[in-house]
Fold this sequence. Notes:
By secondary structure, this protein is α/β, with parallel strands linked by helices. The protein has three domains: 13-365, P-loop containing nucleotide triphosphate hydrolases (Rossmann fold), CATH 3.40.50.300; 392-727, no CATH class; 765-819, no CATH class. It is built from 26 helices and eleven strands. The protein has helices spanning 13-16, 24-39, 60-68, 146-157, 216-230, 250-257, 276-287, 312-320, 329-332, 336-376, 386-402, 413-434, 445-460, 504-513, 525-535, 539-566, 573-606, 613-646, 658-661, 667-704, 706-715, 720-731, 735-764, 779-785, 798-810, 815-829, and strands at residues 49-54, 84-90, 99-110, 126-140, 184-191, 197-201, 234-241, 264-269, 299-301, 439-440, 501-502. It has a nine-stranded mixed β-sheet, with helices on both faces. Strands 10-11 form a two-stranded parallel sheet. Helix 6 (250-257) links the parallel strand 7 (234-241) and strand 8. Helix 25 packs antiparallel against helix 26. The radius of gyration is 49 Å and the shape is elongated. GO terms for molecular function: GTP binding; GTPase activity; microtubule binding. One of its GO terms (cellular component) is cytoplasm. Residues 617-644 form a coiled coil. Keywords: Coiled coil. It comes from Knufia fluminis.
Amino acid sequence: xxxxxxxxxxxxxxxxxxxxxxxxxxxxxxxxxxxxxxxxxxxxxxxxxxxxxxxxxxxxxxxxxxxxxxxxxxxxxxxxxxxxxxxxxxxxxxxxxxxxxxxxxxxxxxxxxxxxxxxxxxxxxxxxxxxxxxxxxxxxxxxxxxxxxxxxxxxxxxxxxxxxxxxxxxxxxxxxxxxxxxxxxxxxxxxxxxxxxxxxxxxxxxxxxxxxxxxxxxxxxxxxxxxxxxxxxxxxxxxxxxxxxxxxxxxxxxxxxxxxxxxxxxxxxxxxxxxxxxxxxxxxxxxxxxxxxxxxxxxxxxxxxxxxxxxxxxxxxxxxxxxxxxxxxxxxxxxxxxxxxxxxxxxxxxxxxxxxxxxxxxxxxxxxxxxxxxxxxxxxxxxxxxxxxxxxxxxxxxxxxxxxxxxxxxxxxxxxxxxxxxxxxxxxxxxxxxxxxxxxxxxxxxxxxxxxxxxxxxxxxxxxxxxxxxxxxxxxxxxxxxxxxxxxxxxxxxxxxxxxxxxxxxxxxxxxxxxxxxxxxxxxxxxxxxxxxxxxxxxxxxxxxxxxxxxxxxxxxxxxxxxxxxxxxxxxxxxxxxxxxxxxxxxxxxxxxxxxxxxxxxxxxxxxxxxxxxxxxxxxxxxxxxxxxxxxxxxxxxxxxxxxxxxxxxxxxxxxxxxxxxxxxxxxxxxxxxxxxxxxxxxxxxxxxxxxxxxxxxxxxxxxxxxxxxxxxxxxxxxxxxxxxxxxxxxxxxxxxxxxxxxxxxxxxxxxxxxxxxxxxxxxxxxxxxxxxxxxxxxxxxxxxxxxxxxxxxxxxxxxxxxxxxxxxxxxxxxxxxxxxxxxxxxxxxxxxxxxxxxxxxxx
Length: 844
């Protein structure tokens, strides 16, 4: 680790400055601002901060050292590459020892893939995080350790991938570190009789990247300065070397672009290095009678160039000599770090008192939000009671499950709805099976061809060859040749392909192949049985769809019951476990019932059987009548079409009748089709009833009963003493939620502490007021009178004093506004901006 030179124990501030600039109550007001920063509630409230912005090598770090008496690393590769927030605090007693704590505050994460600076990513690879991570480096009472601790902190921030849990032996070479980080090093120092003052030192703004610096470095450093400059809560200390042209300062242009002059103070540095004419030009231009007040808090001068740092006594001696000693008193009040520190404290006092009432309200609002979030989160349960609470929940769940798919009068609307959904699914299943009833084509292929030829002849006006319309064979008996269908069977219902449509030739072929009787023209029973199997061949598909629908419905309704019972514990491992066990059980039960019902469907398809002969005969007679009627209509249509085509152009011929046609040569096949339709009617009703009965008699009860026992067994509720640890683990808050709860509780505690602190301060600080010189008029006036180096109220210009008093009288009806007006006037009048009427020529 590159070690920086150690520093000597810094002198107490009482050695550097005169009596405290502000009174005790005002000191407390400023310390309140620091206290709120320590509480880490910056995201909720707006705290005034003093931010040091300047180009590189403008004496910025030396200025910080002079004000705070701490020394930052001076290594060439480790000069200020990240913001350093310094909080100086008055010790509890004048003899309180010097004490310092160094922390790092990480608001930004580092993305190695994002190097380009844009409006969306103004800091390039550094991206704002949701939460700020704070890591304490160390607390020390040895000032010699401070520089090394700051070195460690900066190396950690410039090495964002390093584990923050280990803060020692950081041996990363400087050339391997990032060149910049927007994350902050925070240095909190307290000592007896020190001033209460807080400020942030930013990395120096540069024009071009230096050696070893990436191209985006210039842009990200500029973006960081711009971010701080545009924040209305920040008071800007702009460092400008007296021997450089202000217009060439990039930091100065940033202040102008962000319109931050109303919150800025310009500090000219390196006065001792400037030539006499450069000093005089600066005094005339920025401190003379005709000088424009571009910056709200005016201009200051500091030496900051002699040696490695600035000693206050050295600077005092420098400004005590001519020509400085002969300048007007108002100008002398703007010379040196001692006067600058007093000004900064007065500014901080003003800004803090302006923001405290509003911050109190913001904390109240945020407290309400945090409380609401905590109230919305269920309280962590008692570990001893958890298993018994779970057992009660399971009991409630069991009652809810038993009401599903039931039809008793005690059922709820939800359970009644679940039964209705199941019944509707069964009705759809029955309807799909019913619509699958087999059909028969009324014409043979040969008859269809004859009809087509006849109709075509009629259209074309030509006759056709005489054809027999009575039979397709000489004897009317089945042809003994093997039957080979010329085309695939046509479907009667194109919208539903699950309907078996028999062709008369197909039926005759099946009867002929299985024919065993010696009497021709009879019906072979095995052929009819084959037709039965063919008619129900699509039941398997319809049955699987029904079971899938039932399975989804059962899962949905039971899991909704789980949600209704355990929904407020969805964030716990318990809910996931109960849901997983429920799914696992339902999958097993549905699969088991499905297997049983699938066997039933398979038996129907492989072994057509019924003993309900009465119903079958009744349905067969009805089906036969219907089929014969449709068959007769088809025969007549064909015969009459042929008759018309053969007698085209002749006188009217007697129309063919059924008696003329004679017996139907395909009547045996029609009878066989009627038998199959009759069997389908009886078997389909039996099948649908059996499947639905199994669902209600077996599947539903298994879901209602054994599920709860299955869950209790796997959760260990049957033996609570042995399984208590596991049950408690299931019902305990998950780590992320517990962390979130802890975060909310911590924030609420910090907000409460901040609220109480602000309230106590506001109760003792009534706000500064313009004094007429009488003792005790205000805490601010008392403080001013006690400092011999600061202009007393009698030094205020009469016109400004009169205007402030008149304004105060006009708005006396508003105590809050009156205090703000007096307080604002006091700060402006007692800054070195006042009393500009005097000449800068040395006094005689």
